[in-house]
Structure formats: C-alpha cells, structure tokens
Amino acid sequence: MASRMLIIADTHLPKRARRLPPEVWAKAEVADVVIHAGDWVSTELLEELERRTRKVIGVYGNNDGAELRARLPEIARAELDGVRFAVIHETGSATGREKRMDDLFDDVDVLVFGHSHIPWDTLTPGGMRLLNPGSPTDRRRQPHCTYLTAVARDGVLGEVQLKNVTAR
C-alpha cells in the first residue's frame, strides 16, 4: 500500500488569491491525502477539499478565524502507511527549529508546518523530517508559489518533491 500526498499551506483564500491554481487541484484530486498546514482564511477551501478529495488532514493557522478553529485542531496527527505525521502551522524562528521540534514532537517521523511561506526540507538531529511546502497562492519574497508532493510507503516517506506553481 502507498499514500500519495499533496502538502500545502498558507493558501489565504480568497485574500491572496481567488482560488487554488488548477495544477494544485489536479494534484489534490489524485492524492490519497491532502495535508494543509493552516492559514486557509475561509472555510470554502476546506469544504471544497473535503468534497473533491479522498482525505484532508488540516490545522488552523494564525490568520484563521473562529469557524476554522472550531473545525480544525492546532496540531493534527496521523499515521499514513507506517509514517507518523504531525501537522502544525507555526514552529517559531528558523534558528534552533530542528532541536525545538525534536523536543516537542519526539513521537513522529515527519512534521509538516507552514506560516513562513518559505519551503523547508530538513532532518532534525533526532531524524525527524521537517517539511514546509511554502504557499501555492502567495509567494511573498520567494521566487515562486510552491507546494509539495510525497508518497508514504511501508513506513518510509519518499518521492518528496517541491513543485513550483507554473500558472495561476
């Protein structure tokens, strides 16, 4: 068995964009799981993802209001094909992030986070993988809007690819 994933964060819909780019929707519709690391801004994207995809794992972010906070946790946890995931929006400063996250999430293999809009893919000293997909709708100071795809299979996370949004 394998779980194909789309990993996104910081969509800020409809404030930063009116909708997700078509290529991101295409990936969402074939993914087994869509992981969203917060800052949805409105419930419409959550509801549409729930309608159009197989499974959504999401958390709320600092820009998400009461309705999203009522429906989503601050931290989500899931095991996908033997890989233990946690999802959170904010992890604080990049300085010391790996050590802090090892201390806070010593029981997971992969921590997905957002907030900075800066793609991130590192291993902590404890061996946990930290992933930030950037944003598919708001690149801020990055050269491109981005998202991640990955596959969990037999307890291993593989095929992790950072993708640039090619058209909006």
UniProtKB/TrEMBL annotation:
It comes from the Bacteria. The keyword Protein transport does not apply. Keywords: Metal-binding. GO terms for molecular function: hydrolase activity; metal ion binding. Gene3D superfamilies: 3.60.21.10. Its cofactor is a divalent metal cation. Residues 5-150 form the Calcineurin-like phosphoesterase domain. Its EC number is 3.1.4.-. The keyword Metal-binding applies. InterPro entries: Calcineurin-like_PHP_lpxH, Metallo-depent_PP-like, Phosphodiesterase_MJ0936/Vps29. PANTHER family: VACUOLAR SORTING PROTEIN VPS29 (PTHR11124). Belongs to the metallophosphoesterase superfamily. YfcE family. This is Phosphoesterase.
